[in-house]
Write a structure and sequence with these properties.
Length: 221
Amino acid sequence: MFFPVSYSTLSDQAINEFLKNQYGLDGTARTGYLLRGMNDTYLVTTAGQKYVFRVYRGDWRTNESEIVFEMELLQHLDKQGISVSLPIPDRQGNIIQKLQAPEGTRFAVLFTFAEGEERGIDSEEISERFGKDVAGIHLHSASFHSSNTRQELNLDYLISQALDFIHPRMTHREQISGSCKGLQASWKNCCMISGWIHWIGASATGIFTEIRMSATGMTVQ
């Protein structure tokens, strides 16, 4: 019996060769797996530069328009003076790559590397810097517009649809089933602050995967 693949891990070596050919990286380029999440993230290192290569999961990002939306937002924030990692075009000028994986097409993007180190928000100084920079992203993203579509992260999508999926699978556990119904009812009376910056808290499900601190300030990767 043949079992289809729903999620594969792509070879570091194959990605490395792809990047050297597609982007003209020099022969010293090395690629290693960095982070597994809703996307697969690879660290690419050459003799004088570092990059981040993000491979989107085929069962998560199936619409190229959503990824174009992400790239346009990052480019918009950069033009507004916000420190963000930017997509890098290949030798043909393409930003988004289409990789043929066992499960089907997976989109991928090569990004600039955010210098600095990942830091927790564990002091008053970092909390203040974090708040100022996040506020800057929030304010500048308010003027962003795109003709491409992206799933709106509203309460219906985050709560109601999730509970609709969970509830039928919990009917044998009355307490949990009742809690799902109660939670769903209570959320209908709530409101949600909107803005692209709130995706940072969603980490891998949003545009940014981490926040890095350096002497020059904060950068979102």
